[in-house]
Each structure stands twice: as C-alpha cells, then as structure tokens.
Structure to design on (138 residues):
C-alpha cells in the first residue's frame, strides 16, 4: 500500500513522482532463495523514492529508485538474520491501463541493504524482489 504525488512533468509527458510504499509479505518466497532453511516469517518494508515514467502512454515502462527500510522476522532466507535493515533500491517495471484510472503490471526490484547496528558480519545484502503492482491514479 502506498501513495505518490507528481512533482515534475514536461510537455512530452515525461513525469517524476515521489512515492511512499509499504509492503508486508507474510508468506515465504523461495523463488530467489531456496536455501533449505525452514519457511521464513514476515518481511515488512517501507520505500521512499522517485518514480519516472511517461504520463501520456497507455502502456509504459517505469524506473523507481530511493531509500528502503526492511524488517525480517523469524528465519529469513535472503539476509539470514532477523532484524532491521536500511539501504537503497532500484526497480524497473511495466504497467498498462486496464480500466480508467487503474494500472497493473510486473516490476523487478533490487534492494542493497545492511543490518542496523552492524550485528551482521556481511555489510551489504542484495535482495531481489519480483512484484506485481496495482495502481489507482486519481
């Protein structure tokens, strides 16, 4: 769940929006990290960043980037230790308008995060995410 606001648009339709997005993943996703560990518990995430796209196109590619905070609980698969993580993200995706004001499409996001407080011996973890976004534009 999230929201955004366009802060820059040009005559050719190119736009930039600031976005704040919250994510909660209650199920174990072993698509990227099937490491034999027990099923992971909840993954929560908050992203604040910029979304670049073209306002005029019915089907469009978009680029998102910014800062991210995440919390891994239980026995996480990607980061290995439960706790809070901070970092940056970049995402590239595609969306299409399927009904007036509604957009839907896939996105691939990569988080580069480190554990708060330095409790983890690895300084940076790369956490890929395959997302499917539904957006209501009003």
């Amino acid at each position: 769940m999230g929201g955004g606001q366009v802060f820059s648009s040009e005559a050719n339709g190119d736009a930039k929006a600031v976005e704040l997005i919250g994510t909660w993943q209650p199920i174990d996703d072993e698509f990227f990290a099937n490491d034999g560990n027990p099923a992971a518990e909840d993954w929560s995430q908050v992203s604040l960043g910029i979304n670049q796209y073209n306002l005029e196109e019915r089907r469009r590619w978009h680029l998102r980037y910014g800062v991210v905070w995440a919390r891994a609980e239980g026995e996480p698969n990607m980061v290995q230790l439960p706790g809070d993580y901070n970092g940056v993200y970049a995402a590239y995706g595609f969306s299409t308008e399927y009904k007036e004001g509604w957009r839907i499409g896939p996105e691939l996001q990569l988080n580069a995060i480190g554990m708060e407080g330095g409790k983890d011996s690895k300084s940076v973890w790369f956490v890929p995410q395959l997302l499917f976004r539904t957006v209501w534009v009003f």
